[in-house]
Amino acid sequence: MYGKGIAKGLAMTAKHLFRKPVTVQFPEETRPIPARARTNLLWFDERCTGCSTCAQACPDGCILVQTAPNPDGTLEKVRYEIDFRLCMYCGLCAEACPYEAIQVGGRLDDAVYVFDNMYRDKHALTVFARDYLANNHWTYPNGMKAPFGNDRAEAVTKTE
Ligand code: SF4
Ligand code: SF4
Description:
Elements: H1 2-17, E1 41-43, H2 53-57, E2 63-69, E3 75-83, H3 92-96, E4 102-104, E5 119-120, H4 122-135, H5 150-159
Antiparallel strand pairs: 1-4, 2-3, 3-5
The protein binds iron/sulfur cluster (SF4) (2 copies).
One iron/sulfur cluster binds at residues 41, 57-58, 60, 62-63, 82, 87-93.
């Protein structure tokens, strides 16, 4: 029967006619991003031992770790750099890190006008990481609390 298909089509049109639009007017509007979304890479200096496991795990060779021995046996991280010009955001470095010092998460809107600015050194990576922590209650993407930050300071004061 021909009329049945038309009626079904009209019913579908009527259903959508009074529904709230689902279109998001990006970039003026953005959808909420889950805290543990695999959006980017975050490197946390305070968790990193300089073991270079992440650099060995990276198939693109975009992580550079240069260390020097400290008198106490630890490693001084002279350089820690990620070349995001090459990174394919596979997350293998984060999976390989034994200390969860590099984790997936962070900003989506980190596009740059100058391509070479995608090469990030220790300082640039730390700015990103601290910005993430400051906006996420000093909590790492894996759910653990950072050993510093306002919330932590308040918690320490309350327990003392
Ligand atoms: S996400 Fe993948 S490509 Fe990017 S630095 Fe980590 S291992 Fe390398
Ligand atoms: S990020 Fe992790 S794997 Fe890479 S050097 Fe630091 S502790 Fe080692």
